[in-house]
Amino acid sequence: MTTTQKRLVLDTNTLISAFVNESSASASFFRQVRRTHELLASTETIAELVKTIQKNKFNKSFEGREEKRKGLVIDYTDLVTVVIITQVSTECRDPKDNKFLSLALSGGADFIISGDKDLTVLNPYHGIRILTMREYADEVGIVL
C-alpha cells in the first residue's frame, strides 16, 4: 500500500452488484478502486460473500459461467488485505452488519462503502466515513 491509498471496506451487496453485472456502475467502481485503494476483508465478510454469491437467485447471472462465479471469490481473496478482527462492534441496528464495522475498526479503514441504510445511518462511525458507492465516487472523482 502506498501512503496515498485509502483503505476501503466494501459491503457484500456492493461486491455482488459488481460481480453479477460486469457492465454495471458497480463493476466499473470495483475495477477502479481495486487498482487505487487497499481493500479490506475479514474471514467473516469473505464467508458472507461466498454464501451470498452461491444463492440460487444468482444462477441465471452466472449461467454458463460457473467457473467465473467460483473464480471471483478466489480472485477477490487474493486481492484484498485480510484483517484479523481485534475490535468487535455491536452498534449496528442490524447485527449482521456489525462484521463490516468490526472490520473497518480493526483494519484502520478510511471508508465503508455501502448502500445499506443500517450502516449509512451511522456515518461517520468512529472517524470512519460510511458512504454509498456513488457518493464516494463523486467525492474522489471516479467516473462510473
Short summary of the structure?
The chain is α/β, with parallel strands linked by helices. The chain has helices spanning 12-20, 25-36, 43-53, 66-79, 98-107, 117-120, 133-140; strands spanning 7-10, 38-41, 81-82, 111-113, 129-131. Residues 6-121 form the PIN domain.
Question: How would you portray this structure in words?
Answer:
- The chain is globular.
- Strand 4, helix 6 (117-120) and strand 5 form a beta-alpha-beta unit.
- It is built from seven helices and five strands, in the order E-H-H-E-H-H-E-H-E-H-E-H.
- The longest helix has 14 residues, at 66-79.
- Strands 3-2-1-4-5 form a five-stranded parallel β-sheet, with helices on both faces.
- The model has no long low-confidence stretch (mean pLDDT 93).
- It has 144 residues and is α/β, with parallel strands linked by helices.
- This is Toxin-antitoxin system toxin component, PIN family.
- InterPro entries: PIN-like_dom_sf, PIN_dom, PIN_toxin-like.
- Pfam families: PIN_3.
**Oligomer category:** single chain
Number of helices: 7
Over the alpha carbons, how many angstroms does the gyration radius reach? 15 Å
Mean pLDDT: 93
Helix/strand order:
EHHEHHEHEHEH
- Number of beta strands: 5
Strand order of the largest sheet: 3-2-1-4-5
Structural class: alpha/beta
Strand content: 5-15%
Described by strand count, sense and barrel closure, the largest sheet is: 5 strands, parallel
Low-confidence parts, pLDDT < 50 over ≥5 residues? none
Shape annotation: globular
Distance between the termini: 24 Å
Helix content: 40-55%
